Amino acid sequence: MERIKQMIEKARKAQRFYETNFDQDDVDVVIKLAARAIFDNAEELAKLTIEETEMGVYADKVSKNKNKSKGVWNNLKGKKSMGILDIDEKTGLIEIAKPIGVVAGITPMTNPVVTPMSKIIFALKTKNAIIISPHPKAKKCSSLAVKKILEAIAPMEVPDGMVQVIEEPTLEITQALMAMCDVVVATGGMPMVKSAYSSGKPSFGVGAGNVQVLLDRNIDYDLAAGKVVTGRSFDNGIICSGEQSFIYPRENKDEVFEAFRNAGAYITTEEEREKIINVIFEDGHTSRDVVGQTALTVAKKAGINVPENTRVIVVEAHGAGEKDPISKEKMCPVMAAFPYQYFDEALEIAQTNLSLEGNGHTAGIHSNSQANIIKAGTDLSVARLIVNAICATTAGGSIQNGLPITNTLGCGSWGNNSISENFTYKHLLNITRIAPLSARIHIPTDEEIWAA
Fold it and tell me: Between the ranges 25-39, 400-414, 433-447, where is the mean pLDDT highest?
């Protein structure tokens, strides 16, 4: 691919200049301008995203554009990303940060604005050049996002080629980019992530989401239901970290279901349940026709009537994991409900569903018991457990929860990923460690080593 080869060469030239001529203060100004470009153009970018992808909710996309942009900047400002990072006073070990080179940023249809934004900011923060390859069905809004960023950082005289976008992406072009770059950061469907890991280059990918939410006993079910429904309905359910199932105490079913109804959920009958399952799944996967559509649209396609204020459709499961397809990820405002007798049973249901799909990604818990919260975090194979909060909007990082703000959520070996944390700028650094022998460290005798 001659075009990709030229883009890579241009990126390498720009990266060398940027690395040499921009200090930490310069870089931080650049990334602030980049983030502000998305914040200031949130409405225009959200509008184009809806028009092009035909999925999601305009207001939620505006919110996402604003919150992610200011969150990423707030998360990164003041953090050192070049030169000497640390000197250990005891050992004398010195850590020096260096850029990797050229990043291939593969971005999805579901988050076509904030995903390229965060990858660009992480790259610029670490003095790496980046080439964005957007999803073909979101190329216009992704390209516009890149254009807005380039316009915003132009006053800083960032060299041409540091940030580029493939305006007419194809699978072949994306594969060529991954083969020629220095590191791949892939956010999207599992086939694309698998392709990134097969590119022969160091890669960071994401796993599938299927967020299981545990509802403990002795909690405010109205408060919990409000958060769960808000998370499941956010952007019409296309967020990978959005709530997928809630697991509730069997004896509190009436109270729990009433709380969900009050929050805008519609609980299907047994006959309606089958209609919903048949319309949302096609060959074992979410049907393209319902992805990112409203609960009302999904209900209409299934041929059932629901109240006009319905935000989420709830289907009572007939069993966990392979026993019921509703246990899988559903990229629309439909969720499953599972009863449990004991808390250990709730954890078993959640893990069974995760093992079917979503292993390593995220789970949620609404609880007043720190013991149960710790037990859930200990027993479940997830990289993040969200506590008493909306999973959809906080698993990717929040100013209040300590998780790095990002749009690329690593799922560890559980999800066939290289990291089990939120991807951020630190993952785009090579670190040189200068290691002298320190006279301040006592060398123990063999007797001392084996004595304890």
Answer: 25-39
Give the CB-side neighbour count of residue 363, counting CA atoms within 13 A. 34
Instruction: Give bridge partners of residue 133 from the DSSP assignment.
Output: 106
Chain segment 25-54, per-residue pLDDT in tens: 999 999 999 999 999 999 999 999 999 999
pLDDT for the residue 199 = 81
User: Distance between CA 243 and CA 330 in Å, rounded?
Assistant: 10
Collapsed DSSP state (helix, strand, coil) of residue 337: strand
Mean pLDDT, range 130-138, rounded to an integer: 96
| Residues annotated catalytic, as ranges | 240
Residue carrying the six token digits 């041929």: 303
Spans of all domains in the chain: 2-205+423-434, 211-396
Provide the 3-class DSSP secondary structure of residue 386.
Answer: strand
Asked if residue 444 lies in contact with residue 103, where contact means CB atoms within 8 angstroms, the answer is no
In angstroms, rounded to a whole number, what is the distance separating the alpha carbons of residues 65 and 376?
Answer: 32
| 100 pLDDT tier (thresholds 50, 70, 90) | very high
The burial of 370, by beta-carbon neighbours within 10 Å (0-12 exposed, 13-18 middle, 19 or more buried), is given as: exposed
Residue 334 has a pLDDT of 97
Strands (E), 36-101: 83-87, 94-99
User: 218: burial class by Cβ within 10 Å (0-12, 13-18, 19+)?
Assistant: exposed
Sign of the four-CA dihedral 114, 67, 64, 392: positive
Cβ-based neighbours of 272, under 8 Å, separated by 6 or more? 302, 304
The mean pLDDT value for 350-372 works out to: 97
CB 370 within 8 A of CB 358: no
Residue closest to 352 by CA, chosen among 185, 210, 222: 210
User: Where in 6-156 does DSSP place strands (E)?
Assistant: 83-87, 94-99, 102-106, 129-133
Fold match flag (2-205+423-434 vs 211-396): no
Residues 235-289 pLDDT 10s: 999 999 999 999 999 999 999 999 999 999 999 999 999 999 999 998 888 899 9
Q: How many CB atoms lie within 10 A of CB 331?
A: 24
User: What CATH number was assigned to the domain covering residues 211-396?
Assistant: 3.40.309.10
Query: Quick one: CATH architecture of 2-205+423-434?
Result: 3-Layer(aba) Sandwich (3.40)
Cα 332 to Cα 21, 36, 45, 239, 292, distances in angstroms: 47, 30, 22, 9, 5
* DSSP label at residue 409: B
